[in-house]
Amino acid sequence: MSDRLVDGYDLVVFDLDGVVYLIDKPIPGAAEAVGTLHAEGTAIAYATNNASRRAADVAALLTGMGVPASADEVLTSAGAAAVMLADDLPAGAPVLVVGAEALRAEVREQGLTPVERLEDAPVAVVQGYGPDVGWRVLAEAALAVRKGATWIATNTDRTLPSPRGPLPGNGSLVSVLRTALDRDPDVVVGKPSPALFRAAASRSGATRPLVVGDRLDTDIEGAVGAGMDCLLVLTGVTGPVDLLTAPPARRPGYVAADLSGLFAPADAAQLLPPDADSAGGWRLADDGGAVRLTGDGTPVDALRLLCGRVWDGVAPGDVRAGSDAARELLTSWGLPG
């Protein structure tokens, strides 16, 4: 029997930005990884906080990149928000939409009326990412919420990954209204809410889902909240020091450099306990109140080893280098070494 990580699960739920692609380009190896899962009959879902595309558009985008996908495999925060609104509001109710045309289309498809101004008497405001969101619509939304409209955010991702570095995400736009209104949204639909992950599992009938993401504050926290195992890949937002300093609610069970980790042995990606003293070619020894990393190996093995010790109370700045390779690695992570 195979001991690959993926073989322990009956559904793999992928985040998109930073996991499968960056903006409009597939991450190396992603198409091959998804293609292998499809060929082996493993159920797949894509759960994204990005509210600027509809499920069919996301599937078409992925297919165009060579990543196998169908619309029924895609769950978006825009679609989930529109369904939530339709469950709570009468047919035809006016909803002020802050975001892209995809979010307006989802609201319209659920039998509600997208509007743009306070004068249209919106009973709810739904806010999602859109590259053209500006002051005017944010001002109308602030006025509507002050007048009593329910405020729903599709997600609160502070940033979006890009080849040039993180860019402002919907969470940054939500912060504009939060500052103006001195309050939080009434509901946040997307990750880290576990709703998208639970919907994916329910849709496929899965009992052993694995969530794969690149963000601790959305993908991993959402998976932990849903009680699902999760794999962090280091192809997007999260870096090694982010993982070392993660609070308990944002700690994955597995970490890998990229999606190839799905097909490696499970114990090659598993985060190690505090008493572990070796991983791959790395060794770890107590050094007073600090720890000393020696040897050589992959960055992921060093990270798997160090997380257990740091999460047990050793400060990241108290990780010392005991070899040239360790010094070079820690320095590349921004630690003293």
TrEMBL record:
What residue stretches are annotated with the GCN5-related N-acetyltransferase-like domain?
280-335
Give the UniProt keywords, A-Z.
Hydrolase
Q: Which GO terms describe its molecular function?
A: phosphatase activity
Q: Is the keyword Hydrolase assigned to this protein?
A: yes
Give the PANTHER family listed for this entry: 4-NITROPHENYLPHOSPHATASE-RELATED, D-GLYCEROL 3-PHOSPHATE PHOSPHATASE
Q: Which species expresses this protein natively?
A: Krasilnikovia cinnamomea
* Name the UniProt record assigns to this protein: HAD superfamily hydrolase (TIGR01450 family)
Q: Which domain of life does the UniProt lineage start with?
A: Bacteria
The family database entries (Pfam families) matched by this protein are listed as: GNAT_like, Hydrolase_6, Hydrolase_like
Q: Does the keyword Hydrolase apply?
A: yes
A GO cellular component annotation here is: cytoplasm
Q: InterPro entries under this entry?
A: GNAT-like (IPR041065), HAD-like_sf (IPR036412), HAD-SF_hydro_IIA (IPR006357), HAD_sf (IPR023214)
Alphabetized Gene3D superfamilies for the sequence: HAD superfamily/HAD-like (3.40.50.1000)
